[in-house]
Fold this protein.
Amino acid sequence: MNVCPNCSYNNRVGELVCANCGASIFDDVFRHTREMSLAEIAVQTAPLATRYLVQDATVIIRVSGAQTPISFEPDQPMILGRINNQNPRRPDIDLTAYHAFEKGVSCRHASIQRQEDELIIADMGSTNGTCINGQRLIPHEPYPVRDGDEIRLGNLFMRVYVGSQD
């Protein structure tokens, strides 16, 4: 539960605005995250899963609560974000259908790509930040992503899997 700093109402996890008084509880939602260096992320996630990509790897993103996964080849940078009719620049992977606006996803939130034999992600200076396994990323710095990692864009949760094209 997320307790409202204004009226102490117990809101559901993930709520950005208090259901009782309408006050912002956004800062409290992210109180448990902190920025980590690239080295800290690598050390914490290294034993969890493989970090190397095979040549013909496919990246599969499963957005929490969605039935259909998103898949792509990571050979070029892919921008994750949402469509905004005021902004002519479109993301490569549009998360609008997953309630991205309501969950705090920026129009051009993060980029994900292959860098040599690793999959990396970088926050693009988004308003609500990007996290890997609960650890907030420093904007514009690349971080390794491993098979099974949880990625959070704002308050949109997803899991990343790496597979081959067999």
Observations:
- The helical segments are 26-29, 38-45.
- The CA atoms of residues 14 and 100 lie 13 Å apart.
- DSSP finds two helices and 13 strands in the chain.
- The first strand starts at residue 2 and ends at 3.
